């Protein structure tokens, strides 16, 4: 697991390393510059490099990089875009050292001369929009088409939100120091950053921030019991589908079984019986009929719930009165069973504050931004700009585990921890993809994972499955069926690693 930090958190970490741990700022900076230098040598054409610097410590990193290039015999020009009067202490020292070593300093950049540009204009200290000469320079760099290595973060990207502050430099690669910044993990910042490398420069100790799973977290996958039986691996009830709508029930239940659940039962409208039995014979079926009274319906749901260890409700359910009765029965009679609430069930829940109050940490809600805006009674742009704030506010009404789906999915666990998922691709914006995620969450819960782990792990795994699908079929053409195939392949790979 890695920790993603904001600019403010990173500055505190810098300061505590310098002041409390006693590592001089220039030592950290030299390590930062060496990491950039290594990346330049490995990945960039170094016939002639231009390093553009601001007046702060990001600029000072850049000056140190220019010195390292110069001393190693690579042609380099240094261009100071900032003002001498605003130099930090470190920048004064680096600038003097560059002059002592006779690094070439230019007053104009003739971009046609360069094969690589190092962007050391602003780092985590960016405090406002780029304007004037900085904006003009960023635009010229972007228009030049020359490969750019960004130092720490592309200049113009907000380190906490990923927003473009007026204009931002588009990098080919970003070497970021100590911890990956949240701003280059979110969109659009992550696109501006290009390929990202996180380099150890001797700054440690982050405990606050947003968590993100990585390959080491394969170990979270519940171990299989060689002596287990169908019951050991979880009985999952999917309350899904509606009149002549069977697809969502199919994708969610299949994903639950592929994720390792022992048994899956689909509770759906009678009209879906034949097609589901043909498509997915491994699933058990319980059906209800439109003519049933609420009491008859409730009886069927309760019986199926008695059988299940985990219930998932919502995929393809519709927002009919029958669907509302189903959801109400689930939340009223759930005892303490984990419940995944997805899709149409979330739209029903948005209208029923009384049902929201029945949710607890064992309930996992999986809204996309539209559903979340209805639940949290805010706009989609509120959620984009302040995702954590609105997820916190919603938790006060509905104390559940929350998966807020977007190009970068956020997870808020019931203890208030936040995760941001970095796997997946735009091909996953396809019909049935959300149903697959719902099934993966349920399947993992069924194998005994607690909701605080199952939610971030399922999203991560689902993203990896999507990445596998994109490499097999292409992001444009991949379908939910391909994500199911990706899921199988990813789990096989993870089991072989564990
Ligand atoms: N020892 C350490 O601390 C280490 C730090 N490291 C490096 O330091 C970087 C952080 O350095 P930093 O804090 O000096 O901030 P930085 O990003 O250079 O910019 C600040 C300057 O820009 C100015 N400014 C801001 N916005 C502006 C705008 N829109 N337009 C114009 N001006 C603007 C701002 O002015 P002010 O807001 O004060 O008016 C100030 O002068 C970090 O990303 C990493 O690269 C690494 O070497 C590891 C060790
Ligand atoms: K930068």
Automatic annotation (TrEMBL):
K(+) binds at residues 58, 119, 155. Pfam families: Carb_kinase, YjeF_N. SUPFAM superfamilies: Ribokinase-like (SSF53613), YjeF N-terminal domain-like (SSF64153). NCBIfam families: yjeF_cterm, yjeF_nterm. It comes from the Bacteria. The keyword Glycosyltransferase does not apply. GO terms for molecular function: ADP-dependent NAD(P)H-hydrate dehydratase activity; ATP binding; metal ion binding; NAD(P)HX epimerase activity. Binds 1 potassium ion per subunit. Belongs to the NnrE/AIBP family. In the C-terminal section; belongs to the NnrD/CARKD family. (6S)-NADPHX binds at residues 57-61, 123-129, 134, 152, 248, 316, 368, 435. This is Bifunctional NAD(P)H-hydrate repair enzyme. Its cofactor is Mg(2+); K(+). HAMAP family: NADHX_dehydratase, NADHX_epimerase. Residues 10-209 form the YjeF N-terminal domain. Residues 213-494 form the YjeF C-terminal domain. Bifunctional enzyme that catalyzes the epimerization of the S- and R-forms of NAD(P)HX and the dehydration of the S-form of NAD(P)HX at the expense of ADP, which is converted to AMP. This allows the repair of both epimers of NAD(P)HX, a damaged form of NAD(P)H that is a result of enzymatic or heat-dependent hydration. Catalyzes the epimerization of the S- and R-forms of NAD(P)HX, a damaged form of NAD(P)H that is a result of enzymatic or heat-dependent hydration. This is a prerequisite for the S-specific NAD(P)H-hydrate dehydratase to allow the repair of both epimers of NAD(P)HX. It catalyses: (6R)-NADHX = (6S)-NADHX; (6S)-NADHX + ADP = AMP + phosphate + NADH + H(+); (6R)-NADPHX = (6S)-NADPHX; (6S)-NADPHX + ADP = AMP + phosphate + NADPH + H(+).
């Amino acid at each position: 697991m890695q920790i993603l930090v904001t600019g403010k958190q990173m500055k505190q970490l810098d300061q505590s390393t310098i002041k409390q741990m006693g590592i001089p700022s220039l030592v950290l900076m030299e390590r930062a510059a060496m990491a950039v230098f290594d990346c330049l040598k490995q990945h960039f054409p170094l016939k002639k490099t231009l390093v553009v610097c601001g007046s702060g410590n990001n600029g000072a990193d850049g000056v140190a990089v220019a010195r390292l290039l110069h001393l190693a015999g690579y042609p380099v020009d240094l261009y100071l875009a900032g003002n001498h009067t605003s130099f930090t202490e470190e920048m004064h020292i680096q600038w003097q050292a560059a002059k002592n070593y006779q690094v070439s300093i230019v007053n104009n950049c003739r971009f046609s001369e360069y094969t690589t540009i190092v962007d050391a204009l602003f780092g985590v200290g960016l405090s406002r929009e780029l304007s004037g000469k900085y904006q003009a320079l960023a635009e010229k760099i972007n228009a030049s088409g020359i490969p750019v290595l960004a130092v720490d973060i592309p200049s113009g990207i907000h380190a906490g939100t990923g927003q473009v502050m007026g204009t931002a430099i588009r990098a080919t690669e970003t070497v970021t120091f100590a911890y990956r910044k949240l701003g280059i993990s979110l969109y659009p910042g992550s696109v501006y950053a290009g390929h990202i490398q996180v380099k150890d420069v001797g700054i440690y100790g982050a405990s606050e921030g947003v968590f993100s799973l990585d390959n080491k977290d394969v170990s979270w996958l519940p171990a299989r019991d060689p002596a287990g039986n169908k019951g050991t691996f979880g009985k999952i009830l999917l309350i899904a589908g509606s009149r002549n709508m069977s697809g969502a029930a199919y994708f969610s239940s299949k994903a639950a079984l592929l994720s390792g659940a022992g048994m899956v039962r689909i509770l759906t409208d009678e009209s879906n019986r034949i097609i589901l039995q043909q498509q997915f014979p491994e699933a058990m079926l319980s059906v209800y009929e439109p003519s049933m009274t609420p009491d008859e319906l409730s009886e069927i749901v309760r019986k199926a719930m008695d059988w299940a260890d985990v219930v998932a409700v919502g995929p393809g359910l519709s927002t009919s009165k029958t669907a509302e009765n189903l959801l109400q029965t689930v939340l009223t009679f759930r005892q303490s069973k984990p419940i995944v609430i997805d899709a149409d069930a979330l739209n029903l829940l948005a209208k029923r504050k009384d049902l929201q109050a029945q949710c607890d940490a064992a309930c996992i809600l999986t809204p996309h931004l539209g559903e979340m805006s209805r639940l949290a009674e805010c706009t989609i742009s509120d959620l984009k700009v302040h995702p954590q704030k609105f997820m916190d506010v919603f938790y006060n009404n509905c104390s559940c585990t929350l998966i807020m789906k977007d190009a970068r999915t956020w997870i808020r666990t019931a203890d208030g921890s936040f995760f941001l998922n970095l796997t997946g691709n735009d091909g996953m914006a396809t019909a049935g993809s959300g149903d697959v995620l719902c099934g993966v969450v349920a399947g993992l819960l069924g194998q005994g994972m607690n909701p605080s782990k199952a939610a971030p792990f399922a999203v991560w795994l689902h993203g990896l499955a999507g990445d596998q699908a994109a490499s097999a079929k292409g992001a444009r053409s991949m379908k939910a069926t391909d994500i199911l195939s990706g899921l199988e392949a990813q789990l096989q790979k993870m089991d072989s690693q564990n």
